[in-house]
């Protein structure tokens, strides 16, 4: 990677001027200009400061360091690594504690890492190859053999999924082909767009929240997302409670595949 070009691209993508970035990183605009033109070679600490000032994800910070000729600063552990055992335990508690409502954990590419038993109600009827640890939850949601035939507001819900796939161009292109045209809404938008899903317990109306580890310094941990579903009406809450089964004795963990 060409470091000056890479830095400039990261900066312009975030609509940060040279002056603003220089002030955030504790340097001068002149020095930053020299770095971006290749006339000055930054030290490791300066590269780290620039990456932090741009609020780059940890993976991109490592890429910027590599482009400058330095070793990565942030480790990328396997989820099976003993160092992440407390994280696995904590997420296990969160997933179980969210019952009887569905919750799951995915990696940066949307591949399923773990889920609680209530998520089975979401995936009922989907093709086997689209369900389970290591499969992609975005593909599960929009594929014709996945949840798509049961989503009553597919076009509306799909748009919210697609906007999250900016860094996954191939997957976004594939899933876009499954999505019908979105008709402009003539009614009230309400306070949130629910997922309206047919199920064996009737129609479910679900809201979602996404949780991340904000202070993570490990790439794997920083890229995990815990998505929790919440009932948007009393009928959905009653249906999820009725469908709840006994909790699993153990959650299956699948390390996310390495990505260059």
From TrEMBL:
Residues 240-260 are annotated as: Disordered. InterPro entries: Cro/C1-type_HTH, Lambda_DNA-bd_dom_sf, MLTR_LBD. Transmembrane segments: none annotated. Gene3D superfamilies: lambda repressor-like DNA-binding domains (1.10.260.40). Residues 7-61 form the HTH cro/C1-type domain. SMART domains: HTH_XRE. Pfam families: HTH_3, MLTR_LBD. Signal peptide: none annotated. This is Helix-turn-helix domain-containing protein.
């Amino acid at each position: 990677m060409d470091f000056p070009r890479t830095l400039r691209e990261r900066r312009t993508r975030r609509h940060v001027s040279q002056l603003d970035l220089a002030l955030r990183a504790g340097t001068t605009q002149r020095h930053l200009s020299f770095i971006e033109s290749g006339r000055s070679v930054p030290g490791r600490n300066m590269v780290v400061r620039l990456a932090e000032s741009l609020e780059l994800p940890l993976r991109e910070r490592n890429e910027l360091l590599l482009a400058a000729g330095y070793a990565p600063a942030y480790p990328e552990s396997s989820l099976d690594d003993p160092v992440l055992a407390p994280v696995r335990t904590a997420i296990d508690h969160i997933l179980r504690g969210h019952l009887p409502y569905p919750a799951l954990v995915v990696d940066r590419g949307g591949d399923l890492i773990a889920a609680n038993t209530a998520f089975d109600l979401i995936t009922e009827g989907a093709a086997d190859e689209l369900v389970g640890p290591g499969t992609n939850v975005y593909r599960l949601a929009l594929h014709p053999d996945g949840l798509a035939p049961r989503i009553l507001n597919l076009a509306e819900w799909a748009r919210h999924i697609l906007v999250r796939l900016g860094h996954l161009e191939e997957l976004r292109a594939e899933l876009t082909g499954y999505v019908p045209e979105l008709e402009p809404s003539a009614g009230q938008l309400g306070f949130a767009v629910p997922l309206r899903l047919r199920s064996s317990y009737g129609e479910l109306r679900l809201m979602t929240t996404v949780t991340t580890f904000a202070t993570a310094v490990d790439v794997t941990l920083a890229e995990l997302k815990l998505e929790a579903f919440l009932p948007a009406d009393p009928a959905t809450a009653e249906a999820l409670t009725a469908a709840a089964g006994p909790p699993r004795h153990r959650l299956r963990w699948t390390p996310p595949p390495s990505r260059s």
